[in-house]
């Protein structure tokens, strides 16, 4: 139990750091990847200024793209994320975002509609009641955050691949791109093979209750084969596309594939 | 004809005086660079969600923030893994591991530890490792293998699920990864201190003899 409090420390401290990072202008934040004190340490150790920060940044970006390709190559569409018994569920399941819970998007379920765009036969928008009619499954899996901590939770919803089939999506397209209700416009691309993975889910319930605001009401995309930031919450639209449209964290340097 | 053969043997005999062959030196320094990059970026990643009640000072971490640390870590890992794999293969294939690191006997280790603590451990012949060196060098190779395996388990916990199973579960793999890092840091302190105390060993790792 004491261990758990380290794994998921009082969220405030982390949020504070994240908030301050968030407050930095974009350019400064990106320059931080290679710049400043951290590089100084390397320079000291090697005794020469071998790495100028912009070329190091380009090198790191190229390697990250290479790592995307490697991960896509080793991705096995049939490999399932381990599932757990209910007794293994982490309580309380942590709320984690770059904002406070008080600032989390507040979506009115009655007005909300899921917008469907791109390479699909049927572009009709879906109300929450209509989505609730679709067959649902429950799975208990480990959510792994890019920060390193993990927690086990229970998610219930419709397999995304069933929905993609239902709307006549072109599953030869490269990505399903999600947009969220966050006021900064959170978005994230999901590669099609991961989107078609049997455990990838349009989630409407957490622990058998309607998804609470903290976990992404009214709909979250649960992808147990991806890191947490690639599991968008408060989803308002999905677009089936061949274009890489970037993502909120992906654009700031997190590896885009970030598969588990 | 016979005199020619002798000359040939003499020529061949010269490299025998080399304490550290070129492949060892090259791989050693590539590994040193890769390890430093991995440790400093790893501290950055650790700071995002500490396992214990402390963080590494920001100034000695690499990457500036989590994403930068991750980019460095997942770039330097290729250097570490490819170089490390080449080192293991060459070490076994050339018989260097067997010749240099074996045997390791408890009595030998005890004897040399006692000798080292009383400053009686000789370093006259650098081509032969004493038992303390053998134990530490063999041990750090095992730690190196463990840190790569636990790292891979954390990087791909679904695709490489059997690796996660090897460590128990995902959180345990994180602890294993951390303690391997701590062991490598402890090794580094002793290793660098001793190399500076016996400068000819440092010279051998740079120019070979």
Automatic annotation (TrEMBL), chain A:
Gene3D superfamilies assigned: Oxidoreductase, molybdopterin-binding domain (3.90.420.10)
CDD domains (alphabetical): bact_SO_family_Moco
Segment forming the signal sequence: none
Residue ranges occupied by any Oxidoreductase molybdopterin-binding domain in the UniProt entry: 104-249
Pfam family, one: Oxidored_molyb
Biological source species: Bradyrhizobium hipponense
InterPro entries the record matches: OxRdtase_Mopterin-bd_dom, OxRdtase_Mopterin-bd_sf
Protein name from the UniProt record: Molybdopterin-dependent oxidoreductase
UniProtKB/TrEMBL annotation, chain B:
InterPro entries: Cyt_b561_bac/Ni-Hgenase (IPR011577), Di-haem_cyt_TM (IPR016174), Hydrogenase_cytochrome (IPR051542), Ni-dep_Hydgase_cyt-B (IPR000516)
Protein's UniProt keywords contain Nucleotide-binding: no
GO molecular function: electron transfer activity; heme binding; iron ion binding
Keyword Lyase: no
Main location: membrane
Chain segments annotated as transmembrane: 26-46, 66-90, 135-155, 175-199
Subcellular location: Cell membrane
Cytochrome b561 bacterial/Ni-hydrogenase domain sequence ranges: 20-206
SUPFAM superfamilies (alphabetical): Transmembrane di-heme cytochromes
Any matching Pfam family: Ni_hydr_CYTB
Keywords linked to the UniProt accession: Cell membrane, Electron transport, Heme, Iron, Membrane, Metal-binding, Transmembrane, Transmembrane helix, Transport
Topological type in the membrane: Multi-pass membrane protein
BP GO terms, sorted: respiratory electron transport chain
GO CC entries: plasma membrane
Similarity-based family: Belongs to the HupC/HyaC/HydC family.
Name of the protein this chain belongs to: Cytochrome b/b6 domain-containing protein
Species per Swiss-Prot/TrEMBL record: Bradyrhizobium hipponense
């Amino acid at each position: 139990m004491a261990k758990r409090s380290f794994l998921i420390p009082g969220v405030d401290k982390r949020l504070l750091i994240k908030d301050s990072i968030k407050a930095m202008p974009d350019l400064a934040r990106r320059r931080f990847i290679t710049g400043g004190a951290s590089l100084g340490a390397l320079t000291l150790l090697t005794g020469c200024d071998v790495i100028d920060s912009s070329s190091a940044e380009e090198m790191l970006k190229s390697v990250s793209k290479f790592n995307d390709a490697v991960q896509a190559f080793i991705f096995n569409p049939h490999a399932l994320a381990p599932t757990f018994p209910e007794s293994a569920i982490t309580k309380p399941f942590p709320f984690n975002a770059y904002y406070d819970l008080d600032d989390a998007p507040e979506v009115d379920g009655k007005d909300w509609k899921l917008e469907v765009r791109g390479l699909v036969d049927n572009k009709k928008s879906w109300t929450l009641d209509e989505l609730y009619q679709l067959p649902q499954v429950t799975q208990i899996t480990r959510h792994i955050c890019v920060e390193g901590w993990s927690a086990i939770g229970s998610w219930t919803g419709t397999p995304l691949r069933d929905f993609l089939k239902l709307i006549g999506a072109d599953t030869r397209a490269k990505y399903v791109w999600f947009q969220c209700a966050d006021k900064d416009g959170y978005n994230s691309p999901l590669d099609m093979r991961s989107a078609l993975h049997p455990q990838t889910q349009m989630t409407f319930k957490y622990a058998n209750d309607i998804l609470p605001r903290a976990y992404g009401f009214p709909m979250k995309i649960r992808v147990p084969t991806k890191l947490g930031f690639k599991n968008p919450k408060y989803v308002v639209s999905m677009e089936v596309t061949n274009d890489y449209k970037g993502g909120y964290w992906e654009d700031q340097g997190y590896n885009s594939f970030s598969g588990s | 004809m016979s005199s020619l053969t002798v000359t040939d043997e003499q020529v061949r005999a010269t490299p025998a005086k080399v304490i550290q062959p070129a492949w060892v030196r090259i791989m050693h320094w590539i590994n040193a660079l890769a390890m430093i990059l991995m440790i400093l970026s790893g501290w950055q990643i650790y700071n995002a969600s500490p396992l214990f009640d402390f963080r590494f000072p920001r100034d000695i971490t690499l990457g500036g923030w989590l994403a930068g640390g991750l980019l460095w870590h997942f770039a330097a890992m290729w250097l570490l893994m490819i170089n490390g794999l080449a080192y293991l293969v060459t070490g076994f294939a050339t018989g260097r591991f067997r010749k240099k690191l074996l045997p390791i006997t408890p009595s030998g280790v005890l004897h040399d530890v006692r000798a080292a603590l009383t400053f009686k451990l000789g370093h006259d012949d650098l081509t032969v490792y004493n038992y303390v060196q053998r134990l530490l060098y063999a041990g750090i190779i095992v730690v190196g293998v463990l840190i790569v395996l636990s790292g891979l388990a954390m990087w791909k916990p679904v695709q490489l699920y059997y690796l996660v199973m090897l460590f128990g579960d995902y959180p345990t793999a994180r602890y294993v990864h951390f303690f391997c890092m701590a062991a490598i840091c402890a090794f580094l302190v002793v290793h660098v201190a001793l190399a500076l105390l016996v400068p000819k060993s440092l010279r051998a790792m740079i120019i070979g003899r």
